[in-house]
Design goal:
Length: 297
């Protein structure tokens, strides 16, 4: 990969990047891969290393590693499970960001944190901008909104709102659909929820753009375009040339514990104008994911 970023900090030493959740998280692994390819000094920290939810322990690790940039890819992402485990969801999605604020308050370290389209109620009919009113309808969405509000108390922080992630290294909607397409002739998939499918590889690239420029505030960070879950499943099944039929069904026909937004497409206008970088359409990113991570398995 060509060198795109200055990997040296103001003191002429390699920029140190710490990825929270870098060993096991779907996005975390993509961030580690991208950062290593660009030549940053990468390290990761997760629950396999320490109790990252403990303020003193996390503080000690961050102080020792002394990073220039932290990407916080740790999150409680079980959207339905969160309805029954709100305390745990809040601990990971709200208290951990609050702890990062306590640790980084007087530091020059730049922090990039991730949030979700589920902070919106889904009643819009045009793509959500960063300024649209939030109104989460699920425990997960509320806990993520609390996390973004916490992290934005730092002067040196950005929140990237992302959505519908697929990527190497961890089970996701697309990999699940492809597994099922090998097992069943018909897949019944919801067609009346519309969002922004996004590749973790592309989100990692966008994260380094934000982190290396020390940009602050909220940015939508998704691939361009829109799709229903049924569109995304159909495209993946068709690209993999699988015989399964993808049948559109309504949300009412597929009841789930957590309420999901009916429409949560995120506008990439602010990201594109701020960084002069237009995220590519999701079908292109999907093709690359299928080629690099699924077809080679
Ligand atoms: N996935 C999506 O479709 C989606 C959509 C919108 C926004 N987002 C946001 O994007 C970010 C990245 O999501 P992702 O899909 O990459 O998440 P993920 O694959 O579920 O990874 C989550 C990471 O957090 C760690 N973690 C969870 N609970 C923990 C705990 N109690 N203590 C320590 N570590 C814990 C996990 O560790 P273990 O592997 O050990 O569990 C894993 O490393 C998150 O902020 C998420 O909210 C994701």
């Amino acid at each position: 990969m060509p060198l795109k970023y200055n990997v040296f900090n103001a003191d002429g030493v390699k920029t140190k990047v710490l990825v929270l959740g870098g060993k096991t998280g779907m996005l975390g692994q993509a961030l580690m891969k991208t950062g290593n390819e660009y030549g940053f000094e990468m390290s990761s920290l997760g629950r396999e290393d320490a109790d990252v939810l403990d303020l003193q322990i996390l503080d000690a690790h961050i102080t020792r590693l002394n990073p220039d940039i932290i990407f916080n890819a740790i999150a409680y992402t079980g959207v339905d499970k969160a309805e029954e485990e709100s305390a745990q969801a809040n601990l990971v999605n709200k208290v951990l960001p609050e702890n990062l604020v306590s640790i980084l308050r007087y530091s020059a370290c730049h922090c990039v944190h991730y949030s979700t389209d589920f902070v919106f109620n889904g009643k819009n009919s045009a793509a959500y901008t960063e300024n649209d009113e939030t109104d989460p309808r699920s425990v997960y969405g509320s806990s993520k909104l609390a996390g973004e509000r916490a992290i934005l108390k730092l002067d040196n922080a950005a929140v990237l709102r992302t959505a519908w992630l697929f990527g190497c290294g961890r089970k996701n909607f697309v990999s699940t659909i492809l597994k099922l397409a090998h097992e069943k002739p018909v897949l019944r998939i919801v067609h009346d929820q519309i969002g922004s499918p996004t590749s973790t590889a592309d989100l990692a690239e966008m994260s380094f753009i934000v982190g290396s420029r020390k940009a602050t505030g909220i940015f939508n960070a998704v691939n361009s375009g829109a799709a229903s879950w049924c569109d995304l499943a159909s495209e993946a099944v068709s690209l993999m040339n699988l015989p399964a039929f993808v049948e559109p069904i309504t949300t009412a026909e597929w009841p789930q514990k957590a309420i999901r937004p009916k429409y949560s497409v995120l506008s990439v206008k602010h990201f594109t104008e701020t960084f002069d970088y237009a995220p590519r359409p999701w079908p292109q990113a999907l093709r690359e994911y299928l080629f690099e991570c699924i077809a080679r398995d």
